[in-house]
Amino acid sequence: MTIKRMSLGGEFEAKVGYCRAVVAGGFVYVSGCVGVDRATGDVPDDVTQQCRLALDIISDALADAGSSFAKAVRVTYMLPDATDFEPCWPILRAAFGENPPVATMIECGLIDRKYRIEIEVTALAG
């Protein structure tokens, strides 16, 4: 089986030692992504802005693997405060459109308190 490891140069990829995404066995596995403005490194306070930025990072990783949100089969949402999840629903619904994946939402601590949502996606490759 061929394995393709992909990096987008995120801050924690080198620090922690992981890839942004891996293509293997017909799937694209995208690591958990937080809402960072890649141009400035800024992290907005608003959870919906963070959600949009995280989805942008995921979208780019999927596109680099020849995939898209339309091919997503699983998504995991991780939030330090579960009450922040509902404001993100319209954004998530728009991202996945007519092809919603299975989903899990977990309330948990994230690597830094400034992050309010982390999103992980598995999609069909190609």
How would you portray this structure in words?
- InterPro entries: RutC-like_sf, YjgF/YER057c/UK114.
- Strands 1-2-3-6-4-5 form a six-stranded mixed β-sheet, with helices on one face.
- It contains three helices and six strands, in the order βαββαβαββ.
- It has helices at residues 11-17, 47-64, 89-96, and strands at 3-6, 21-24, 27-34, 72-79, 102-107, 118-124.
- It starts with a strand and ends with a strand.
- The model has no long low-confidence stretch (mean pLDDT 94).
- It has one domain (3-124): 2-Layer Sandwich (60s Ribosomal Protein L30, Chain: A), CATH 3.30.1330.
- 26% of the residues lie in helices and 29% in strands.
- With 126 residues, the protein is α+β, with helices and mostly antiparallel strands.
- It is globular and about 40 Å long.
